[in-house]
Amino acid sequence: MIPPDPVAAAESPRALAELNRWLATRTAQQRVAWALANLAGAHALSSSFGAQAAVALHLTTRERPDIPVILVDTGYLFPETHRFVEELRVRLALDLHVYRPDPRRAWDASRVAALPALGVAGLDEYHRVHKIEPMQRALRELGVRTWIAGLRRSQSASRAAIGFLELREGRWKLHPLADWSDRDIGRYLHAHDLPWHPLWHQGYVSIGDVHSTRRLEPGMREEDTRFFGLKRECGLHEFWNEVEGRAA
């Protein structure tokens, strides 16, 4: 089966749906290789360096070792995350680009400590400053036309319907691992002798900021371990092409 032309997919929802059906017949490695060869450049991979981040990093850099890797450092990552970043940066020879919030708008520790009482509105404001704006800035400064990310449908209800390929306002977004299960992830890590995030072994299944990440406890869903159980997404992958003025 010949894949639909990306130009046609950019112009027609039906053609994009056909392209997603074709991508469903490919392996994750083949999806990445096809995207790098056929979708508009510049290309970049984002990573939160979370629990299973080594898979997307390894899989993508096998196809293009020099692809820019974007990390948004909120200023409140776990010390273990910083060590994990450095371990993978060296091991995989990553072209790492770290973006941080505007220091003029960044929240100090006392304001962050009040987040649980601020509810969803407070979380949204924090995420706009500490995650969404830095990512928008990264995509803009690196001239990214195709963004690769490691999201998976099995991670949460909010991700259950993500496509392998999306297009918004002229920018492609590829999720090569969209149909992978936790077992697929584990098998890949084992097969390539890749590490889990060190906090995985302490019961953390989804890892972000220190103040809004919890261990998985009996009776909890994975998505309950983030953001005080109030929401699952920070907005970074929900509004990835939001108008710059609104995302800032």
Describe the fold and architecture.
The chain is an alpha/beta fold. It has a single domain (34-247), classed as 3-Layer(aba) Sandwich (Rossmann fold). Helices cover 40% and strands 10% of the residues. β2 (68-72), α5 and β3 form a beta-alpha-beta unit. The longest helix has 27 residues, at 115-141. The model is unreliable at 240-248 (pLDDT under 50).
Give me the secondary-structure topology:
Elements: H1 6-11, H2 13-23, H3 28-38, E1 43-46, H4 54-63, E2 68-72, H5 79-92, E3 95-99, H6 109-113, H7 115-141, E4 146-148, E5 165-168, E6 171-174, H8 182-191, H9 244-247
Parallel strand pairs: 1-2, 1-4, 2-3, 4-6
Antiparallel strand pairs: 5-6
Portion in strands? 5-15%
| Overall pLDDT | 86
Structural class of the secondary structure composition? alpha/beta
**Oligomer kind:** single chain
Looking at the overall shape, the CATH architecture is: 3-Layer(aba) Sandwich
Basic shape:
globular
Could you say what the CATH topology is called?
Rossmann fold
In helices, the fraction of residues equals: 25-40%
- Rg, nearest Å: 18 Å
Catalogue the unreliable spans: 240-248
Question: What's the helix count?
Answer: 9
Order of helices and strands: HHHEHEHEHHEEEHH
CATH homologous superfamily grouping: HUPs
